[in-house]
């Protein structure tokens, strides 16, 4: 075939599947502890080991968590749901089937709204969220990294078998690796704000796969997709998707066809590699679990959970942007710590519609308060001395010019160490800023007389000498003089011959 080759422009089509281990006291269908990091094979019972005759009982809290996740994403909660058996063999799965949900998941639809790094908005709809149980964990011993055939032996730990696992499936609506990561970040934050999971990728409580395909820009049909696995950080999600898009582009550019397959992400080499093709795809032979009665979700119970949703990250973002006038970078710094965000919003609510006050409070929180917390190695809700009220008082005192910023810092330190009300401390100890020109003028005269050299330096054109003189005024006034007022009085006096 001949003819002119036209460089084709492609767009990426990405969907995400995310597995989230739920934070509960016990496992999904038995009373064993749901705890990460225990001695191998110590959190087991006949139910999670699937011994003959053992019967599962659903964990009510896990069901609540999934419904709350759905409500936070504005999803529909069907009144009827059921558990199904997903049949496949895997050495770390004691039942040789997994209790999951096939055609009647707990949550249907929903949308995750997110903000990108530059603050622009994006969103991606959800297909469904369902509840299942996790598998155990294999450790492959022997040569290589364990994935290589010929490993000598494998160890299995069933502690994780039966841990409640929530699977979130998105629609293929993401168009870039950046958006996929932003979507995942907001999904992670949503579950963190709801308190339903630790969402730690490094401990495996958040795991995700990405379905990636490309198509000519303007086309509405989907290209052939590949499923990418083994990504263990948001950075590797970004790199893997980026690399897979590039790989598919070069396959098509060379006149080839993308094969539908599962590909693993190779972090060290920065490429994806084929794991299994579609022909090897499993037939799971789903059927309703005969040991579990279907779930009927009462509308009143769902409404009660809806009322308890609380603050979600995208709403927090919008409030921090609107009420506090914070920049995207500052909001990103805050957003990962729900307790810090709640603390700031509680402070801001004390003077609604006062953006200057909100900004001052945010600056104190992001600056000195965060530094002090880091120095003490505590989180904002791990300390009991600094209250939202105290932060508000500090910001108000500094804004009104009632105290110098130096005094404000010292006050914050004191309140953080011993508690109390900044306003009361200022009144009791006479820490109010000296803003009376006649009183400062007296100190200025005293300082000029005692620092003839600095005075002569300034008058000889050494502009910097003013700093030394202001410093002396602050020292003599014990840090209480208004520094701007001190400087302007000094300049006025120094101009006189
Ligand atoms: Zn158990």
Provide keyphrases for this structure.
497 residues; alpha+beta; Arc Repressor Mutant, subunit A; 3 domains; nine-stranded mixed beta sheet; three-stranded antiparallel beta sheet; elongated; binds zinc ion
Give the count of helical stretches: 15
Mean of pLDDT? 91
Count of domains: 3
Strand content: 15-25%
Protein architecture, described:
It is a single chain. The strands form 4 sheets. Strands 1, 5, 6, 7, 10, 11, 12, 13 and 14 form a 9-stranded mixed beta sheet that branches. The protein has a 3-stranded antiparallel beta sheet with strand order 4-3-15, with no helix packed on it. The relative contact order is 0.10. It is built from 15 helices and 16 strands. It folds into 3 domains: 10-301, no CATH class; 311-429, no CATH class; 437-495, Arc Repressor Mutant, subunit A. The mean pLDDT is 91. The chain is an alpha+beta fold and 497 residues long. The longest helix has 22 residues, at 355-376. It binds zinc ion.
Task: Provide a short characterization of the protein structure.
By secondary structure, the protein is of the alpha+beta class. 36% of the residues are buried. The protein folds into three domains: 10-301, no CATH class; 311-429, no CATH class; 437-495, Arc Repressor Mutant, subunit A.
Topology, element by element:
Elements: E1 10-21, H1 60-72, E2 80-81, E3 84-87, E4 97-100, E5 107-108, E6 111-115, E7 121-133, E8 137-141, E9 153-157, E10 164-170, H2 177-194, E11 206-216, E12 226-231, H3 234-253, E13 261-266, E14 271-277, E15 287-288, E16 295-296, H4 299-307, H5 313-324, H6 328-335, H7 338-348, H8 355-376, H9 388-399, H10 405-418, H11 422-429, H12 437-450, H13 452-459, H14 465-476, H15 483-495
Parallel strand pairs: 12-13
Antiparallel strand pairs: 1-10, 1-11, 2-16, 3-4, 3-15, 5-7, 6-7, 7-10, 8-9, 11-12, 13-14
Helix pairs in contact: 2-3, 5-6, 5-7, 7-8, 7-9, 8-9, 9-10, 12-14, 12-15, 13-14, 14-15
């Amino acid at each position: 075939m001949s003819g002119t080759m036209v460089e084709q422009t492609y767009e990426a089509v990405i969907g995400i599947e995310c597995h989230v281990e739920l934070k509960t006291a016990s496992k999904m269908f038995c009373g064993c502890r749901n705890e990460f990091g225990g001695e191998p094979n110590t959190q087991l019972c006949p139910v999670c080991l699937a011994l003959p005759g053992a019967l599962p009982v659903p964990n009510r809290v896990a069901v609540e968590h999934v419904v709350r996740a759905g409500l936070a994403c504005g999803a529909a909660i069907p009144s009827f749901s059921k558990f199904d058996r997903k049949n496949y063999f895997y050495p770390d799965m004691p039942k040789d089937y997994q209790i999951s949900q096939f055609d009647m998941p707990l949550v249907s639809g929903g949308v995750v709204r997110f903000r990108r790094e530059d603050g622009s908005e994006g969103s991606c709809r959800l297909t469904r969220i369902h509840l299942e149980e996790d598998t155990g964990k294999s450790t492959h011993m022997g040569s290589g990294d364990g994935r290589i055939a010929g490993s000598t032996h494998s160890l299995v730990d069933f502690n994780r078998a039966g841990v409640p696992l929530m699977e979130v499936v998105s629609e293929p609506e993401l168009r870039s690796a950046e958006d996929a990561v932003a979507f995942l970040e907001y999904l992670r934050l949503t579950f963190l704000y709801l308190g339903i999971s630790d969402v730690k990728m490094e401990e495996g409580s958040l795991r995700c796969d990405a379905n990636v395909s490309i198509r000519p820009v303007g086309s509405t049909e989907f290209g052939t997709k590949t499923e990418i696995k083994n990504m263990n950080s948001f950075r590797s999600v970004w790199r893997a998707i980026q690399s897979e898009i590039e790989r598919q582009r070069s396959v098509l550019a060379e006149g080839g066809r993308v094969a539908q397959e599962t590909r693993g992400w190779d972090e060290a080499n920065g490429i994806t590699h084929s794991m299994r093709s579609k022909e090897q795809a499993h037939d799971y032979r789903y059927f309703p679990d005969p040991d579990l009665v279907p779930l009927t979700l009462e509308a009143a119970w769902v409404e009660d959970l809806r009322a308890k949703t609380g603050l979600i990250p995208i709403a927090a973002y919008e409030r921090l942007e609107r009420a506090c006038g914070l920049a995207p970078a500052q909001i990103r710094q805050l957003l990962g710590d729900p307790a810090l965000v709640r603390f700031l919003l509680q402070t801001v609510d004390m003077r609604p519609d006062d953006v200057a006050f909100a900004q001052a409070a945010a600056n104190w929180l992001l600056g000195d308060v965060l530094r002090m917390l880091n120095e003490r190695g505590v989180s904002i809700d791990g300390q009991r001395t600094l209250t939202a009220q105290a932060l508000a008082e500090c910001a108000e005192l500094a804004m009104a010019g009632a105290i110098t910023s130096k005094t404000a810092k010292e006050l914050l330190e004191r309140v953080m160490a011993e508690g109390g009300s900044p306003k009361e401390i200022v009144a009791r100890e006479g820490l109010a800023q000296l803003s009376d020109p006649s009183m400062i003028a007296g100190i200025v005269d005293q300082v000029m007389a005692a620092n003839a050299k600095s005075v002569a330096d300034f008058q000889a054109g050494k502009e910097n000498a003013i700093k030394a003189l202001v410093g002396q005024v602050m020292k003599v006034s014990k840090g209480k003089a208004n520094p701007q007022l001190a400087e302007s009085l000094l300049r006025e006096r120094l101009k006189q011959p």
